């Protein structure tokens, strides 16, 4: 059909236009489904991703033929490609064997790249949100709603001692283990907190724009993190929540801190799991979990310092020597990673890999920071992206803090959620340089009401606090 139509006919043909409209509408549903699936076992988000990838290829052809595509790369492309290169080189060096020429090295290098396959989710999500920014308001309630269901499931699971797999002390929601569940809930809890704190939930569709409904969903996500009972996750959430609230107002910091203190007191006296997780820290020198962590850190450090070449490129992304502790572990007999993002990166990919990993992590936080302030200064263009940027910023801080004590970067569910949200974040990186009209894809799309500055996005209704400030300014001017 492409070769039977001229370039102009391809743009104006009613049938093609309708087909294009349906494609974009279907992709919006697919990415909303993906956002819901990040709280489910990892097979579900992968299915949604591959479906969305197929749709994206067809969309890409439409955009090329209508000459509406902007050839550019997402903001985090360079540090991502640098980390991919590090994993490839480290894998090649660790697998190279003179007896087998380069074959063993190439095989190990390619296997090492498989660890980073979730990066594809970032690029897919970025381009979908870049060309369909209206999807932002749909994925937030979708992700938080399923996260809330997982949080309530974890509460029932932990309080009622009902487990469908291994009998963990903690809740696991719809996932198989508490560490993966904690990582996902850190991201979703702080996303909900960021959207609530900025009041941008008003841009969510349907009942989600109601404050009571949104707060209930956000609290259910926080309950999921609470009942996941990962101490590193709690610490990360505290750090992330502080970042989120302090960027809004000092009063909000005090309010959230007071609510958190009350919740902590109730949890201490009413939920036995809280004392079971925290009291052993008073005698951490003899607590089995702390001792195992110190032992695995020492084991990882010895691997790293084994030879000069390993100090540079590491032992290889898939060559970490498992550690078998003396005590029993939940569901496994040995530890297969260093229980720290930073020590794992140092051991497996060397000093170069650790530096590149830190580069990617800090670049992600800087991007979220810049997007938040850009969105705050251009509210007519940002809509819900203000709350999204703030929430993702808090989530990234939380994962980095928790990553001191756990390897959440290597957890598949966490990566699928993190890189999806980073794609959502990165899509708003060009508010200043790329007008919203340039991102329209359909000639027959309904034109949105324009603001005084010419933006196609609606102005958010002023909050009561903003109205009071306006009234004070008018009184002062008089």
Helix content range of the residues, please? 55-70%
What are the low-pLDDT stretches, counting only 5+ consecutive residues below 50? 430-461
Q: What overall geometry do the principal axes of the alpha carbons give?
A: globular
Please give the count of helices.
Answer: 19
Major sheet attributes = none
**β content, as a range?**
under 5%
Q: Could you tell me the mean pLDDT?
A: 83
Helix and strand composition category:
mainly alpha
Instruction: Report the radius of gyration as a whole number of Å.
Output: 24 Å
Number of strands: 0
Pattern of helices and strands: HHHHHHHHHHHHHHHHHHH
The separation of the N and C termini measures: 67 Å
Description:
With 478 residues, the chain is an all-alpha fold. It is 66% helix and 0% strand. Residues 430-461 have low confidence and may be disordered.
In short:
Helices cover 66% and strands 0% of the residues.
Summarize this structure as a short list of keywords or feature phrases.
478 residues; 19 helices; globular
């Amino acid at each position: 059909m492409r070769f039977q139509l001229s370039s102009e006919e391809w743009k104006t043909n009613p049938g093609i236009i309708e087909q294009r409209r349906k494609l974009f509408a279907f992709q919006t549903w697919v990415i909303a489904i993906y956002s819901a699936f990040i709280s489910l076992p990892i097979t579900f988000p992968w299915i949604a991703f591959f479906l969305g990838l197929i749709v994206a290829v067809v969309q890409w052809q439409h955009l090329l033929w209508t000459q509406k595509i902007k050839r550019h790369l997402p903001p985090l492309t360079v540090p991502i490609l640098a980390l991919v290169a590090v994993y490839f080189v480290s894998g090649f060096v660790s697998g190279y064997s003179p007896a087998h020429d380069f074959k063993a090295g190439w095989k190990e290098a390619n296997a090492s790249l498989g660890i980073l396959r979730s990066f594809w989710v970032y690029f897919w999500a970025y381009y979908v949100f870049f060309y369909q920014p209206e999807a932002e308001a749909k994925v937030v309630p979708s992700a938080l709603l399923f996260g809330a269901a997982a949080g309530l499931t974890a509460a029932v699971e932990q309080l009622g001692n009902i487990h469908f797999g291994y009998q963990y002390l903690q809740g696991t929601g719809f996932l198989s283990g508490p560490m993966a569940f904690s990582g996902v809930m850190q991201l979703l809890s702080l996303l909900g907190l960021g959207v609530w704190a900025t009041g941008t939930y008003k841009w969510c569709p349907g009942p989600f724009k109601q404050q009571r409904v949104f707060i209930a969903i956000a609290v259910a996500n926080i309950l999921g993190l609470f009942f996941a009972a990962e101490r590193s996750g709690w610490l990360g959430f505290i750090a992330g929540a502080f970042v989120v609230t302090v960027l809004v107002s000092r009063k909000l910091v005090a309010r959230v801190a007071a609510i958190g203190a009350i919740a902590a007191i109730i949890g201490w006296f009413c939920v036995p799991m809280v004392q079971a997780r925290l009291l052993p820290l008073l005698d951490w020198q003899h607590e089995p979990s702390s001792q195992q962590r110190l032992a695995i850190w020492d084991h990882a450090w010895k691997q790293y310092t084994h030879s000069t070449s390993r100090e540079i490129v590491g032992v290889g992304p898939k060559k970490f020597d498992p550690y078998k502790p003396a005590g029993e572990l939940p569901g496994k007999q040995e530890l297969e990673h260093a229980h720290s993002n930073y020590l794992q990166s140092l051991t497996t990919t060397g000093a170069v890999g650790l530096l590149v990993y830190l580069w990617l992590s800090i670049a992600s936080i800087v991007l979220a920071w810049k997007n938040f302030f850009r969105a705050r200064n251009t509210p007519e263009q940002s809509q819900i992206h203000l709350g999204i940027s703030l929430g993702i910023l808090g989530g990234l801080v939380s994962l980095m803090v928790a990553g001191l004590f756990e390897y959440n970067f290597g957890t598949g569910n966490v990566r699928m959620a993190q890189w999806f949200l980073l794609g959502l974040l990165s899509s708003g990186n060009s508010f200043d340089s790329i007008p919203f009209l340039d991102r329209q894809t359909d000639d027959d799309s309904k034109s949105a009401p324009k603001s005084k500055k010419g933006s196609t996005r609606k102005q958010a209704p002023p909050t009561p606090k903003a109205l009071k400030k306006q009234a004070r300014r008018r009184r002062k001017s008089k």
